[in-house]
Amino acid sequence: MVTEDPPALLLQMQGIVKTFPGARALDGVDLDVRPGEVHCLLGQNGAGKSTLIKVLAGAHQPTEGTILMDGEKIEIPHPVAALEHGVATMYQELDVVDGLTVAENIYLGHELANVGVTQRREVANRTRQLMERLGHPEISPHREVGTLSAAGKQVVSMARALSRDARVIVMDEPSAVLDSGEVDNLFRVVEELVAQGIAIIYISHRLEEIRRIGDRITVIKDGRTVGRNLDVASTSTDELIRLMTGKDVEYSFPERPGVPADAAVRLQVEDLSLAGVFSDVSLTVRAGEIVGLAGLVGSGRSEILETVYGARRATGGTVRLDGRRLHNGSVPTAVGAGIGLAPEERKSQGLVLDEPVYRNITLSSFARTARGGWLDERAEKKAAQEQATALDLRPADVERSIRTLSGGNQQKAMLARWLVHGCEVLLLDEPTRGVDVGARSEIYALVRRLADAGTAVVVVSSEIPEVLGLADRVLVISEGQVVHSGPAESIDEHQVLDMVMEGSAA
Amino acid sequence: MSEQQTSPNPAVDSPKTTAGRRRGFSALSGGTARNLGLVAALLLLCLVGFLTGGERFASLSNLMIVLSLASVIGVMAVGMTFVITTGGIDLSVGSVLGLTTVWATTLATQNLADQYGWIVMVTCALLVGLAAGLVNGVIIAYGNVVAFIATLAMLVAARGLAELIANRRTQLVQSSSFEGTFEGNLLGVPKIVWIFVFVVVAGWFLLTRTTFGRRTVAVGGNPEAARLAGIKVKRHLMYVYGLSGLTVGIAGVMMLARTGAGSSTNGLLYELDVIAAVVVGGTLLAGGRGTIVGTVIGVLIFATLSNVFIINNLDSSVQQIAKGAIIVGAVLLQQRISAPRST
Ligand SMILES: Nc1ncnc2c1ncn2[C@@H]1O[C@H](COP(=O)(O)OP(=O)(O)OP(=O)(O)O)[C@@H](O)[C@H]1O
Ligand SMILES: [Mg+2]
């Protein structure tokens, strides 16, 4: 897509600096974007990618630096100005309003109206077209967004960016909540847009995606541009990782030591059902074993975890921990018995955003460090700090508000919660969503270490290679049914995909 | 919208709001800054009082009057701070206060009090308050009824019950042991002010130093996250409304000590003063942040305000207008300095 004769630059950001009280998030970032290219922005968690695009979107004001559009200096004092300049943004954290319908969300802020009266039919028609274009004709314009899955919400957010007739579309980790089929859809749309001369700024921690659709790459480290306009085809992965992290990191899965056949069964789920979502799911996890659940988004994997955890009331079946049957539909019982869940949507399900990092980390365990109801904040901070250091949380200051952490670091804090609490069974729903390459291998290693120490782990991930690489045993879920169960080594990505597709076609 | 900012105001990043973001960065320093602002407002009011009322305002006896005025509302405001921190509201406090004073002064209760002493009346007031609070809590937490509606129903019902019991008559406190214990001064300070001080200190410890307080903040900040972290959200909500009811019971005892009579009209419209004091103090109506210190200052601001008006013989309607202005002003100010909240 890069032509021989490079077209004039569409957008330039020069020397962007952004300081927050107590933090210098951007420290001189440059970015050049050509029309009709997919420009990838790479960097570790907390490098400043989201901050940069928020500056571009008018959500943050830069402390220093200039932004040029078609060679002319522009100001973006607020989000509406960004849209007027033709910059549409899909934020990293879902930004849809749950109580409104799909169509209302898409046209929020630029409602099609005739003397103040919204043109409902027109809006519905255009929404339908957008949804078709994104490969989701089944999502009705009148559906309430709160009833959609995370992936569905992402599609709505994407449709909103498309509805703006933008010249530059920024996508901050759009694929994090999508499964491979939906990523294909996304990429098809991206290719269409690029062919029309629209520029895409694409942020992702998945290097293979960047290889697939990227044209050029800008790498940011600690708020500075360290790699500028690198050509995707001619830059090696090692080189990219070295630029991002400043060192050589191996991107690999830890060894599987193999689970002894006589290892005790920790978690035993029998014929678990949730009416209308999944039925007759049985699984056993031994001490030291990692079981992965593969499947499409919406196949019921998250719901299975949540039901095992007691956050949803099963309509049938039993959950046993170390042979003891757990009370159906009670999270406190599950937590008390030693089950932990790192939920899929960390912002709405996991974090108390206005509270400091350490209180979020100790949210499940503060009552235990407390003595007779009196909090021991010193002990809490210490425990939180230990895990923060172990997980390389950045910044490592646990007294900061968790709201100010980058997406990937918030995810690490969620994991830290269960490390501080200590679990016999750990349920991980998309544990590496939004986590950078370096930290990913750390999390894999950590999960394996926990398993080696006797924890039973269940992992749900939309990235099939991750499930296959990390787990000892894999269950393939399709349409709420277990369609395959077996050792991870004896199955490959294509087979999983086939099973998943077959199941949903049936 | 994004990780750290969601604001209807397009100028999201004005220096003022960035200063506000600091709050979470160091919760204490932001809270202290807010409280300092409130203290400044209180001092300003005192200055006005001194300039207009002179000695009549700036005397020890007048200070005691202001404090006893603040005490009854103040005790209920401590309970209300917990309720509002969970993101709820308790509209029933005023009428439940009336009910507790009536129940504690019925003929039957006072006869028992003649035999066993003041403890009977106090226990009665506390139990009635607690029971009303727990009923609110059960309906809200387990019945999934919106707090506004559930406590509105309690407001109406409790007032009705109080009228029924008292037969719309004022019931004088006759127990001399009650009068001896709660009326008058201790070390020069009215006893009900001591109770207020005690409740405030206890409330502060409870909110900032105990697991109960931590749960309250977490439940208000993100109920789903609290639930998934293993906190018994429903049970906790029930306790919080029970606590509010308990503080109303305490306030009922103080009311009897101050006025010497139980009446179904006691505490009429107090809920408004209580809620106003809490919100002006800096507790977020949306939940997730509560401050006892702020609440106390809020209570003192309103008590001082009415004192200044009374001293100057000003029309109470003007006072209502001033109150309204303070509420709006304080809340506007808070939005400036507090972090934008996500939806
Ligand atoms: N409102 C804020 N106040 C203080 N610090 C902030 C604020 N917003 C972001 N930061 C800090 O700025 C740095 C960059 O954050 P940013 O969200 O841009 O990272 P990122 O590159 O998008 O990371 P990720 O891949 O995890 O999403 C981080 O250290 C973060 O803690
Ligand atoms: Mg980010």
Automatic annotation (TrEMBL), chain A:
<dbReference type="Pfam" id="PF00005">
    <property type="entry name" value="ABC_tran"/>
</dbReference>
<feature type="domain" description="ABC transporter">
    <location>
        <begin position="259"/>
        <end position="504"/>
    </location>
</feature>
<keyword id="KW-0677">Repeat</keyword>
<dbReference type="InterPro" id="IPR003439">
    <property type="entry name" value="ABC_transporter-like_ATP-bd"/>
</dbReference>
<dbReference type="InterPro" id="IPR017871">
    <property type="entry name" value="ABC_transporter-like_CS"/>
</dbReference>
<keyword id="KW-0547">Nucleotide-binding</keyword>
<feature type="domain" description="ABC transporter">
    <location>
        <begin position="11"/>
        <end position="247"/>
    </location>
</feature>
<dbReference type="InterPro" id="IPR003593">
    <property type="entry name" value="AAA+_ATPase"/>
</dbReference>
<keyword id="KW-0067">ATP-binding</keyword>
<dbReference type="InterPro" id="IPR050107">
    <property type="entry name" value="ABC_carbohydrate_import_ATPase"/>
</dbReference>
<protein>
    <submittedName>
        <fullName>Monosaccharide ABC transporter ATP-binding protein (CUT2 family)</fullName>
    </submittedName>
</protein>
<dbReference type="InterPro" id="IPR027417">
    <property type="entry name" value="P-loop_NTPase"/>
</dbReference>
<dbReference type="GO" id="GO:0005524">
    <property type="term" value="F:ATP binding"/>
</dbReference>
<keyword id="KW-0813">Transport</keyword>
UniProtKB/TrEMBL annotation, chain B:
<feature type="transmembrane region" description="Helical">
    <location>
        <begin position="145"/>
        <end position="166"/>
    </location>
</feature>
<feature type="transmembrane region" description="Helical">
    <location>
        <begin position="292"/>
        <end position="311"/>
    </location>
</feature>
<keyword id="KW-0812">Transmembrane</keyword>
<feature type="transmembrane region" description="Helical">
    <location>
        <begin position="91"/>
        <end position="109"/>
    </location>
</feature>
<keyword id="KW-1003">Cell membrane</keyword>
<feature type="region of interest" description="Disordered">
    <location>
        <begin position="1"/>
        <end position="22"/>
    </location>
</feature>
<dbReference type="InterPro" id="IPR001851">
    <property type="entry name" value="ABC_transp_permease"/>
</dbReference>
<protein>
    <submittedName>
        <fullName>Monosaccharide ABC transporter membrane protein (CUT2 family)</fullName>
    </submittedName>
</protein>
<feature type="transmembrane region" description="Helical">
    <location>
        <begin position="32"/>
        <end position="51"/>
    </location>
</feature>
<feature type="transmembrane region" description="Helical">
    <location>
        <begin position="238"/>
        <end position="256"/>
    </location>
</feature>
<dbReference type="Pfam" id="PF02653">
    <property type="entry name" value="BPD_transp_2"/>
</dbReference>
<feature type="transmembrane region" description="Helical">
    <location>
        <begin position="116"/>
        <end position="139"/>
    </location>
</feature>
<feature type="transmembrane region" description="Helical">
    <location>
        <begin position="63"/>
        <end position="85"/>
    </location>
</feature>
<keyword id="KW-1133">Transmembrane helix</keyword>
<keyword id="KW-0472">Membrane</keyword>
<feature type="transmembrane region" description="Helical">
    <location>
        <begin position="186"/>
        <end position="207"/>
    </location>
</feature>
